[in-house]
Amino acid sequence: MELEQNPNHPNENNFHQYTLFDISKDPGLKDDDGNELPRPFTKNQMRKWLKKVRWENNKHEKRAKEKARAKERRRNARSANIDLGPSRKSLKKMKLEKPKKNIGIIIDLSFDHLMIEKDRFKVIKQILRCYSINRRSDTPLKFHITSFGDKSKSDISRHNGYENWDVEYHEKPYLDVFSKDKLVYLSSESDNIIETFEEDTYYIIGGLVDHNQHKGLCHKIAVEQGIRHCQLPLTKYVNMKTRKVLTIDHVFEIVLRVCEGVPWQDALLKVLPLRKGAHVSQSLCDSTSSEDISNQSTNGT
Length: 301
Hints:
EC number: 2.1.1.221
Strand content: 5-15%
Number of helices: 9
Catalytic activity: guanosine(9) in tRNA + S-adenosyl-L-methionine = N(1)-methylguanosine(9) in tRNA + S-adenosyl-L-homocysteine + H(+)
GO molecular function: tRNA (guanosine(9)-N1)-methyltransferase activity; tRNA binding
Enzyme class: transferase
Helix content: 40-55%
Keywords: Methyltransferase, S-adenosyl-L-methionine, Transferase
Shape: globular
Largest sheet: 6 strands, parallel
């Protein structure tokens, strides 16, 4: 950030000059491989760098404000006799006491090289939600993350304490950690429809925000690796206005709810966002109507 002194004018620029605002810490700007980018910056590089500087300088103050707001919400809820559920502290204490189902979810983070930084952050945010809903379940699933490389570690480090999450992190890919016969890749392109989740089995969700750029990639990988694959029975239970590709956290929560004993239709309607336009499948309605007519005939009505 310091400008070099001009040899022709020794008294010129003999002090520190800063770009746009005075900063107290310079985390530098690095590319996706961790190499520091040269200065001076282009406009786009400067924008990214300043964003990182602001984050570094303000993160402690921001987190303190978030904690204060959360404390205020809890205080107001107590005074209004509203149950907000277990606290973070009690959940951490309970995490080792809750019996986990013998069913696991693996999030495959081997796609870092296919995403820009913004999309990688979206993946981490969705993983954070998966962790949150899983630890609040009375019967949580075993939660694993594989291919947990340097980029993923750097991205998730923005969330303090991630190392203490009730999640198993593996730097190796899933084939180096689990037996192939216990793996099932969840993919919307699979021809196999799943209805029940098997014990002692791990279901893989691709950690990819693709914006339709890598359609069918997870299914292709599963076929090439000789791994079982299947898709959720979306069309059987609900009609959707949009395509069937769901976010990581939506797939995770649907699997979790069904494993808890929630019927497929109820789980799908509860989890799928409004923008998906999910409603009860017409074929299911027709089937229910036929059953009602048949029951009426049998009862003589």
